[in-house]
Structures are given as C-alpha cells and as structure tokens.
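Course assignment 3, question 2. Fill in each field.
Student: A.L.
Task: Predict the tertiary structure for the chain below.
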Amino acid sequence: RRAALLRSALSAVALCALSLSCATAPRAVPPEAAPGPAEFARVGRGGVLYAAVDVAAARPLIEEFAAAAKIDKKKLADVYRARSAELGLFPGAAPRWRAAASGSFPTTRAAISFALSPSWRRMKADRPYWKAKTGLSLAFDSDGAALLSDGDPWASGGAPALPASYAALPPGAAVRGWVPEPAERISAAKAR
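Answer field:
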C-alpha cells in the first residue's frame, strides 16, 4: 500500500516536472533565498533533467493527478507529509532516476511494515535500503528524508552544478527545474 503511494507520489513529481514550463518573466531572488546545490545533493550528478517540487504549492496539481489516476484522496496523506521533493533523471545509467522527499515520515512504522511485507526485501549494502518486487528502492536518511530510486537510493555521487539562471526562478513555485547542457544533449540526439 505504501509502495503504491510512493510510486504515485513519484509519478506526480515526474508528471509535474515534465508538464510545466519555467516562468517567462522570473523575478529577482535575494541571494540568501536562492536554492543551492545542497537541495539536489541527494539526487546526484549526471542527470539529463532535474526538478524540485514545493509540495504545498503543488497540492492542486497533485490532487488533479490523483483524480486522473483514480487515487483516493485519503491515500495522499503520506504525500502531504513531504515539504519538498527533488527528482533527477539519468537515462542509460543505473539507477535511471532518483528522488528525495524532505518532510516528516513515519520511518519506524515504515520499517516494520516493510519487514512484514512479502513485497519488500531489505538490501544489505554499505547503507541498507528496502527494495520492492516492482523495482522501487527506498531508504530514509538521518535527516528523515525519503530517498527513492530504481536502484540503490544511496548512489548519488554528490550535488550537481546548478545553472546561474536557476536562482532566478521564483521561490515557492510549485515546480522548478532545468536541463543541464541542453545544447550538448540536442547535438547528441541529432547525431543518433
């Protein structure tokens, strides 16, 4: 049940990130309010797309997605435990995507629930995590953030370099994101 909710939350983050565009006239952001690379440190380097979601601001979008996906609103309670979420897409790499959600999650209750579920298995690694039969991996870091991926959720490799224009995006926007080195990626796509 939690796995389905986490998959739904991740789908909502990905859908929002892919369907929304950046602000056409971004306003200036004071340097102290600008998001920094630490925001994406748990997601990692080397992605082709990055997005950050302010869950409170994105609530109407999440509810629309939940209605379209026929997800009961009561099941969204755990999604709303998150304050923010970050997502990175890494096609051709393992894992192919990573997400991190900051908030207050019931980590002890989740660990007990996963241990009793035949659909989840505890993976023994340098830093253990839970893996579902569906391929979803989940871990909770020491700050209480939920780390999700389709591989080892701890394999982030550090924070990506944020473009200077990212700080100009409005804080509090439901979704903010960027594509690193888009010209290079377009050239590589044309060469195929």
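Instructor remarks: Residues 2-19 form the longest helix (18 residues). The mean pLDDT is 75.
Grade: pending
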